[in-house]
Amino acid sequence: MQDSRVLMFEARGRSSRSAAIDVQSVEATNPRVQTGPHGHNDLELLYFRSGSGPHMVMNRMLPVAPGDVVLLPPGVVHDLSMVDAAAGWAVAFSPTVLEGMTGLGQSLQLWRSNPLLSPFLAAESSTEAGLFHVEEVNRPRWESLLQGLEVEFRGLGAGSDLAVRAYLLLVLLEVARLAGDIEGELRHRQEPVLADAFGVIEQHFAQELSARDVAEAVGMSPGHLTTVVRERTGRTIGEWITERRMAEARLLLSHTDLPVESIARRVGFRDPAYFNRRFRQVHGVSPGAWRK
Known about the structure:
Layout: E1 7-9, E2 21-26, H1 31-35, E3 38-40, E4 43-57, E5 60-64, E6 68-72, E7 78-79, E8 84-93, H2 118-125, E9 131-133, H3 139-154, H4 160-178, H5 183-188, H6 191-204, H7 211-218, H8 222-233, H9 237-255, H10 260-266, H11 272-283, H12 287-291
Parallel strand pairs: 1-3
Antiparallel strand pairs: 2-8, 4-5, 4-6, 4-7, 4-8, 6-9
Helix pairs in contact: 3-4, 6-7, 6-8, 6-9, 7-8, 10-11
Keywords: Activator, DNA-binding, Plasmid, Transcription, Transcription regulation
Protein name: HTH araC/xylS-type domain-containing protein
Domain HTH araC/xylS-type: 195-292
């Protein structure tokens, strides 16, 4: 039974229109870390970039190591205050964040029906089932996605709410890759195709990349892949390629002093003028205005 004295947090959007999500940096000075035992009314994902010592989850002592991922279903009480030199991210979110991106039930009552959230369901019955470890070679990709998610969450620019959802979906697809026990369910719903397609985009978005290229990489015809991705996400492969490039462009505009022309080339646009036009179409402002 949950202790009524334990502080419970709930993810809320930045506005009435924003996705119900909360992204926190895990560090010793964070009040959430200092709070001690607490829980969340939503789903929560923890990623440890560094740290050691015990992470208490439902009175279970779990040792922390760099690259650890912990999934916490709603209502689970945990305590980060004893983790030494903790650094990473905590992402709490309502399943409504995935609205329009999976074609499945999104309410908190129906989250168990969404295959991308199946790892959280496994963690509900067994704490250990929600523990994963990211190998060192894959950590830069994880940390880039989580950093991008935090940047978009903190930002108030045009398109940031959509970018938050896109980044979260990419993180959940990475979790799905770690959770091999849900492969059958994902395959039944064709989510492995989605995972593979997003993986190709993530690896090659900074190069010349078309929907046909992605289809060839996953072994499908362009028409079939387009149908599957549109049915699952409401968007085309081309739109997802553009969104990934724009997300990276926003990150570089916010955190570097690189010229816009250099950023254009880094995110897969040979022609800076075309990049400027596409950026303005997506965000309503030029890259230079976004940076200001």
